[in-house]
Amino acid sequence: MEKAAPWCWYIKLTDMSYHEIELQISSPIGYPVDVLLMVLVDKSDSSSTNVFMNSHHEELSITLNKYFIQKNSFIVYVYGLKTIVSSTEQYDRVLCSGTIEVVCPVDIQRTVILGLHEGETHTFPLLSTETQDMLPVTIHRQPPSLYRLDANVMFEKEMDFIVFVRAQNQLRCFIVNGRIFNNTFPFELPSASSVSCMVVCACRKQRLEGSIWITTTISHSHVISFKTFLSLVDTYRLYDLAIAFGTRKVTPNMRPIQYFYRNKSKEYFDMIMKQLDGEMRPYLKSNGGEQGSVVNGRLSGLFFSTYTDAMTNIPDPYSYFGPIRLYIQCLEMFNPECNLYFADFYCHDKRHHVTVIVVPKFSMDNEFCRQYLKELDVFYNPYLCLRVQCNGALTVMANMDVTVEVFYTITVNVRRALEFKHGFIEKTKTIGRGYAHPSGIPKNPSCSICNL
């Protein structure tokens, strides 16, 4: 081969069966790549080998274990890494990457061109392969911005966990060594952003020679996708989107309502009356609506609706969530002893929804909401408010231009409400599946109105 340019690397791969493959890896001119990472995936058995090497080498000869290069083809993933060092952490940013397929023993010489693509086009390795056991990695999120990856397994000896993270068109990589993997990200993740990551568990079966580090993949995780929490600024931006949508008319369509209502199955209400002494107890909010909401999986409550038909002034005669509808007088739940917070603005199809949180003053839930959400004036806001009549009586007003959902954080005693005539139950028709999806339905990501 010809003399290598400073931004090119010539690498000869040799296995114990004396198959030899020469790779020319070319990166863009002038890009300060510190480390090259090659992931070699054998298509015959889905095994893979990971090779790290300092970029100051122009020519390298690497001897792999005898099980790697077979008579079939294999895939070469190459990443040009720039090392980022902070006062406490270190990780690598992927500046360029490339992929080729090599057919043994036909392709004796191949060229891998590393492109200056952004993170959306940087490819995770091992996406189309399977190992004997997938690494069971889960993500734990804690507001306002703490994210932790956890593999619920302990190894007999220390492993190297290679983590790939894609966020906001950047692909990053970091390595953790140990018998267990339970680590936070060594860099800040942007708020209100979609993130995907994958963890490769590797065993250092070949020794570290100088600046070349070779490992063999033991297992890897699926691609884990999640959305980072909305910051308080993002929540205010979402509120501004809701206000902009609602102010298309001169004044919001606020109408008086007497009841909040909630649909569930007959079995749900039977359990409440027979097993829970009539108490309808809050439970953790699902991931429905805005995926980055800080209340998802953090705040417990009960969903009630406020919407009534403009012609009949009563709720729709059907429900997506069950055939039994419970009505509770609004002022029993929403009054000056409560605080009100804006939590979400989203849609699934055509109609938009606004979620407000009703929470007792001086409660722990109120402190959580005050820290992470936008507080609304209970007497003056465009979604759900109290109006004082001339005689001093209170009326609850709700916006009908959107579906205002009330997330109520207090236990509701259904039996007592029925006994004291503060509520009643009726049957309704169901449409769709007839029950709420356990994990919630995400908001429509393509809507130009309610997405940040």
From TrEMBL:
<feature type="domain" description="Phytanoyl-CoA hydroxylase-interacting protein-like C-terminal">
    <location>
        <begin position="250"/>
        <end position="451"/>
    </location>
</feature>
<dbReference type="InterPro" id="IPR042868">
    <property type="entry name" value="PHYHIP/PHYHIPL"/>
</dbReference>
<dbReference type="InterPro" id="IPR045545">
    <property type="entry name" value="PHYIP/PHIPL_C"/>
</dbReference>
<dbReference type="Pfam" id="PF19281">
    <property type="entry name" value="PHYHIP_C"/>
</dbReference>
<protein>
    <recommendedName>
        <fullName>Phytanoyl-CoA hydroxylase-interacting protein-like C-terminal domain-containing protein</fullName>
    </recommendedName>
</protein>
